[in-house]
Design a protein that fits this description.
Elements lengths: L1 H11 L2 H6 L4 H7 L8 H13 L4 E5 L9 H18 L4 E5 L10 H16 L5 E3 L7 H14 L3 E6 L5 H8 L5 E5 L14 H22 L3 E4 L3 H13 L8 E5 L4 H9 L3 E8 L4 H10 L2 H11 L2
Parallel strand pairs: 1-2, 1-8, 2-3, 3-4, 4-5, 5-6, 6-7, 7-8
Helix pairs in contact: 1-12, 3-13, 5-6, 9-10
Bound molecules: flavin-adenine dinucleotide (FAD).
Flavin-adenine dinucleotide (FAD) binds next to strand 4, strand 7 and helix 12.
Amino acid sequence: MDILRHTLLWCSENKNLQNKVPKMKFVQKALKKFMPGEELADAITASKEFVSMGIPTVLTHLGEELKDLSEADDVTNHYLSIIDKIADEKLDIEISIKLTQLGFNLSEEKTFENFDKICERAEKLNNIVWIDMEGSRYTRKTINFYKKIKAKRKNTGICLQSYLFSSHQDLNDLLEVTPNVRLVKGAYNEPHDIALKDKFRVDENFLDLSRKMLIESNKNGNRMVFGTHDLKLVKAIKKEADLLNYPINNLEFHMLYGIKINAQKQLVKDGNKVRILISYGKSWYPWYMRRLAERPANVMFVMKNIFSK
Ligand SMILES: Cc1cc2nc3c(=O)[nH]c(=O)nc-3n(C[C@H](O)[C@H](O)[C@H](O)COP(=O)(O)OP(=O)(O)OC[C@H]3O[C@@H](n4cnc5c(N)ncnc54)[C@H](O)[C@@H]3O)c2cc1C
């Protein structure tokens, strides 16, 4: 299984496949499981359906590693337009952004300027703008970026990955700025000297970090979110929250569109907060490969679409 995961993650970074695979009809068909569509309107329609079930959403416009900094302004304007739409239609939707989609790989200064504009617009709605965490070559830079933006804007949150050896140190560092954190396991192909490879240890680390996050949130009221579909882990976090007298209606889980829908509804019934992250856009290839790598059965699902009408 590790070989399959490794191969899919390698595919996610392969430029040749990136040009070919998205054109394949059976892949496009299978993609629907994880993405309501390529357009913002598709993501908004899906959001409204979730909101009607008491589940608000987070939107991400897919794209990463800009080649040309001039594209960063278009991406920024797109996110600004989403915020305007959220305001006009009074929707409970947040946004989550990959910094390299704003040109972080090309200019940190320009990225800061654009991200700040997005936060400023969202601030008026009291709306948090989340920063996704990308591959490890960006971890330290992203944390430094977050500390800088958090000193200026309160309404921003950052993602941390429990598979990294550095995650406890990263969390301690972030605690200096009373961060809003979304904890996930991590989705990239990282080397052995940077990331834990054993699922048991990644999960154990997740739970240790969760405990620290809950204690911090109890003290300072900052938003601490757990982004996982691992129901064993969800149960363990709920137990931990109980032991720490953490308010049940503050305990927040985020999941991805199309995964563990019944569990999402059950968490809402239990009185927990749930948000669904919905991705959309035309640049879905690397993101989709990472989703396939998370669960080998997904590959079988794609293959079945070769034979279905
Ligand atoms: C809201 C949210 C935001 C995220 N943001 C980031 C980010 O910024 N950076 C980053 O590196 N990663 C991010 N991720 C991805 C994350 O790192 C994991 O790769 C992903 O969530 C799978 O891990 P898991 O915690 O669900 O546990 P796993 O142990 O991988 O999965 C637990 C169970 O969930 C189900 N499941 C998990 N993934 C899938 C899937 N793709 N398809 C079908 N079933 C599945 C399976 O039943 C599996 O047994 C995010 C995830 C979420 C939920």
